[in-house]
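User: What would this chain look like folded?
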Amino acid sequence: MERLQKVLAQAGVASRRSCEELIVSGRVQVNGVTIRELGTKVDPASDVITVDQQPIAREKLVYLLLYKPIGVITSLADPEGRKVVTDLLPGIEQRVYPVGRLDYDTSGLLLLTNDGDLANRLAHPSYELDKVYRARVKGKAEPEEVKMLAKGIMLDDGMTAPGEARIVHYDPQKDQTLLEIVIHEGRNRQVRRMCAAIGHPVVTLERIRIAFLTIGKLRRGEYRHLTPEEVQQLKNSLQTRKPRQVKS
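Assistant: Here's the prediction, encoded as structure tokens.
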């Protein structure tokens, strides 16, 4: 037996949170009975589950690692007609959703899956999964400034959580510093705002690692399936980490 919202998410209906909203709004039926209570347990092998009177089908779970280039929206659709991440997934029939996001002008690694339960936990900052960025910033960043990035920066939406930061290289000809920054949160344009706060605006930004997953042999715009071992390692990493309290 599994929770109804988890079954819906794994069937590719929507993200887990959106599935919870479908249940509460009375749009989901199990064996002809409307269910509004979250956490209701169902047997996906024998129960008939419908959304708006349409039966769901359990999709094969898909886990993808995409090397997103600049100029692509982390979304399933864009009203302005710009390219979205799912445009880069030829051959993928399942409806997958991005885990977190990368800005339009940021490149790097992005996870996509139709496993709503896993995606929800991976995206939650309480599990503190490492996200590693390479940021090329204006000016010569000093060690004391970089220590501030690691300890936490006060932004307009509060103090950032402690992480890691180091200077990789300074280019005196361009007067730019390459920084490597490790964060656990996923605030909007967080790394860019952190660097701007210490007086070094970002020139280019790329995410090079998520947990243990790296770019490897991927080229920009390419994707690959995670191996079963990698999927299990992701799940194990969530089980072994104790979620910390996140201030609302």
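The first strand starts at residue 2 and ends at 3. If you want, I can go into more detail on any region.
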